[in-house]
Amino acid sequence: MRVAPPSAGAVRTLMVLGLPGASVGQTERVTQLLEAWAKEGRRWVGDPASWRIVALPVTSPHLPVLAMEQPHWALWVEDDLDAFRRAFRQLRQVVEQGGPQRLLAVHPLMWVARDC
């Protein structure tokens, strides 16, 4: 998917399903991931500060309506042993509730030492 970076001052919303909560600390985890991706040269991110991150539970009754209104969606996948099982279960719920059909997988930052 090719998405042009937003113009200066533009704000894009990323609806994130599956975060363990809706606190600023939880949404900040997604912002940090976008910042890391931007530093890696992923141009579609544009300015990470231009993204508004909104946490939404998979069980939200507003999911079908928001899926029609919001173009950018993500599914949070934790880094524990049961994370993929939970994510798959959540994806099934999203489909059953008429949620978005395309989601970006987002996850905790994992810094790996690289030899230079």
Task: Please give a structural write-up.
The N terminus and C terminus are likely disordered. Helix content is 32%, strand content 16%. By secondary structure, the protein is α/β, with parallel strands linked by helices. It has a four-stranded parallel β-sheet with strand order 2-1-3-4, with helices on both faces.
Helices, strands, pairings?
Elements: E1 12-17, H1 24-39, E2 51-56, H2 63-69, E3 73-76, H3 83-96, E4 104-106
Parallel strand pairs: 1-2, 1-3, 3-4
Summarize this structure briefly.
This protein is α/β, with parallel strands linked by helices. It is 32% helix and 16% strand.
Based on CA inertia axes, which overall geometry fits? Answer: globular
Helix and strand sequence? EHEHEHE
Class inferred from helices and paired strands: alpha/beta
* Low-pLDDT windows of residues: 1-5, 112-116
Strand share of the residues? 15-25%
For the record, give the distance between the C-alpha atoms at the N and C termini, rounded to a whole number: 30 Å
Q: What is the count of β-strands?
A: 4
Q: On the 0-100 scale, what is the average pLDDT?
A: 86
The radius of gyration computed from the alpha-carbon positions, rounded to a whole number of angstroms, is: 15 Å
